[in-house]
């Protein structure tokens, strides 16, 4: 198993938006893999670059956005294979699929995408069943009658009661959760190997969200479909993901199997994200929101991009851009041998850059976290 090629391999993906205000480095050198049947989380705050990364894999980035570098390999085919030359011009390899090949061979059939808002994907003026049937007819070699049968079966499969009746209803007659089920049915209809889901449950209430997550678990077992699950919610990650990529300002700053990420957290940002979710052992009042706001992706901070908000930031974090690698040597070989996702982190704490002797930085977060202690210190220094 471990020596099998991954289903999807994303390498050094960079996507930028060329705006009047400047270049937005929305996705800035992202790498991760998805194994067959694996559910991989892409998690981070708003603006981290999760959606743009998802769109880039499908080559759906819109103007003024552009993939400027990187490789995306799916079942051996190059969905993206772009190199940025030193003079700034872009070179697409000959292997890279054309937009026509993407449409014909990949989108819908091999990789399906589900968005947060079902109304973006469902046309309000047409009946749900008809839209589903048409999609199946378009992508599979079946007659209209067969497509209708498959469509009703799919509606039943995703837990929509009375599917024959609901087939003839319009999107607005479905609740939010039921609409999201329709989209899952549509995504599954061509039996893709990979589904990219961009916050599909974010707009739903917690109970309905839980039901959808259960459904996804069941369907994944049945069809062995792999998922890239975009979310800002670590609770969702804990519930369904096998492995996780934590994004901050266009970069993946920690990646690991889900248990390792939760119980052997390496990056201070991941820790902050974990602190901000409710846990059974903590009351809602004691949740720590992450201090400060995320800086702009047009002008990311120097050094480690999280240094302006990191409770553990030191002087060196402002200068050194952390490498993405294993936190301790030796770990990689063992984990690679077991076929597990390597635990990788981008934080200078784990590098040989003299973090220990570097001066702590003052930022919003160190003030917030140090709490009483810094107040005491400040009081002492003023000689009061
Ligand atoms: N069309 C666009 N033009 C300019 N900038 C864009 C455009 N689309 C996205 N961006 C920028 O790219 C960055 C990444 O955005 P993205 O939508 O991927 O974030 P996200 O992690 O999906 O956040 P959210 O949780 O809010 O969906 C942001 O700085 C965003 O402002
Ligand atoms: Ni998004």
TrEMBL record:
Oligomeric and partner information: The complex is composed of two ATP-binding proteins (NikD and NikE), two transmembrane proteins (NikB and NikC) and a solute-binding protein (NikA).
GO CC aspect terms: plasma membrane
Domain ABC transporter, first and last residues per copy: 8-274
Membrane-topology annotation of the record: Peripheral membrane protein
Superkingdom of the source species: Archaea
Keywords, ordered alphabetically: ATP-binding, Cell membrane, Ion transport, Membrane, Nucleotide-binding, Translocase, Transport
Enzyme Commission number(s) from the entry: 7.2.2.11
Region named Disordered: 356-384
Name by which UniProt lists this protein: Nickel import system ATP-binding protein NikD
Catalyzed reactions: Ni(2+)(out) + ATP + H2O = Ni(2+)(in) + ADP + phosphate + H(+)
Subcellular location: Cell membrane
GO molecular function, a single term: ATP binding
Enzyme class: translocase
Pfam families: ABC_tran, oligo_HPY
Major location (coarse): membrane
């Amino acid at each position: 198993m471990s020596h099998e090629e991954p289903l999807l391999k994303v390498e050094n993906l960079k996507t930028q938006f060329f705006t009047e205000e400047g270049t937005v480095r929305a996705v800035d050198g992202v790498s991760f893999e998805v194994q067959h049947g694996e559910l991989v989380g892409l998690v981070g705050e708003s603006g981290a670059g999760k959606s743009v990364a998802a769109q880039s894999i499908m080559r759906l980035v819109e103007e003024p956005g552009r993939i400027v570098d990187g490789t995306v390999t799916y079942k051996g085919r190059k969905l993206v294979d772009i190199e940025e030359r030193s003079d700034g011009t872009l070179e697409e390899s000959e292997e890279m699929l054309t937009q026509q090949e993407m449409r014909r061979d990949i989108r819908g059939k091999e990789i399906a995408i589900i968005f947060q808002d079902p109304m973006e994907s469902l046309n309000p003026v047409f009946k749900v069943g008809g839209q589903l049937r048409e999609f199946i007819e378009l992508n599979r070699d079946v007659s209209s009658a067969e497509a209708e049968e498959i469509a009703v079966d799919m509606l039943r499969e995703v837990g929509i009661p009375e599917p024959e009746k609901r087939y003839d209803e319009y999107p607005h007659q479905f609740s939010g959760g039921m609409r999201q089920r329709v989209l899952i049915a549509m995504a599954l209809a061509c039996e893709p190997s990979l589904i990219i889901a961009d916050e599909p449950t974010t707009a739903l209430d917690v109970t309905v969200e839980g039901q959808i997550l259960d459904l996804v678990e069941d369907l994944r077992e049945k069809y062995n479909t792999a998922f890239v699950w975009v979310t800002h919610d670590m609770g969702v990650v804990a519930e369904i993901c096998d492995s996780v990529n934590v994004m901050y300002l266009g970069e993946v700053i920690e990646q690991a199997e889900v248990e390792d990420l939760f119980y052997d957290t390496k990056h201070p940002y991941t820790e902050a994200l974990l602190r901000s979710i409710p846990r059974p052992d903590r009351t809602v009042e004691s949740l720590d929101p992450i201090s400060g706001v995320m800086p702009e992706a047009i002008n990311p901070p120097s050094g480690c991009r999280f240094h302006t908000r990191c409770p553990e930031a030191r002087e060196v974090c402002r200068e050194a851009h952390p490498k993405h690698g294993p936190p301790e040597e030796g770990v990689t070989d063992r984990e690679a041998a077991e076929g597990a996702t390597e635990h990788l982190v981008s934080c200078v704490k784990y590098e040989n850059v003299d973090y220990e002797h570097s001066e702590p930085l003052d930022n919003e977060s160190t003030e917030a976290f140090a709490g009483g202690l810094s107040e005491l210190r400040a009081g002492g220094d003023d000689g009061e």
